[in-house]
Design goal:
alpha/beta, Rossmann fold, five-stranded parallel β-sheet, 19% strand
Length: 139
């Protein structure tokens, strides 16, 4: 079976290493970025095939989002998702928002669908994330 490719953007390095190891043991290939600037540079240069995206909401704004209302990074993922949807190759790529954000106002900016699931980190250890990934990829 061919490995499914995941683009992961999350600045929580230590916990993400745990997720990445589990994903790789379960036949997923993970391309991980801490900063959105680096992820977009990779997408622009490499134009890789990505099967699914895992994204945090709280991310450093970097250069790309310096002028946006990210609330010091607490809402950067909102802008990242909007920009990913503007990329023709990734406009219909499924996304899992793996986040600690529980602010209803922030979460109201996302609508769950076949292409978007919200998973709260404390409730989604790696094995549960893998189950969600498989479910989303089978849709």
């Amino acid at each position: 079976m061919e490995k499914k490719r995941i683009l992961m953007i999350d600045d929580d390095k230590l916990p993400m290493e745990y997720y990445i190891r589990s994903l790789e043991k379960n036949n997923f290939e993970v391309k991980y970025f801490v900063r959105p600037d680096d992820a977009f540079a990779y997408l622009d240069k490499e134009k890789p095939h990505i099967d699914i995206i895992m994204l945090d909401i709280m991310l450093p704004p970097g250069e790309k989002y310096r002028g946006k209302q990210t609330n010091q990074g607490l809402r950067t993922g909102i802008f990242v998702l909007e920009d990913l949807r503007d990329y023709e190759d990734y406009s219909s790529t499924p996304v899992i928002l793996l986040t600690n954000v529980r602010n209803p106002k922030t979460l109201a900016e996302f609508e769950e669908s076949d292409l978007l699931s919200i998973a709260f980190k404390p409730n989604y250890p790696p094995q549960k994330v893998i189950e969600l990934l498989k479910e989303m990829l089978s849709r």
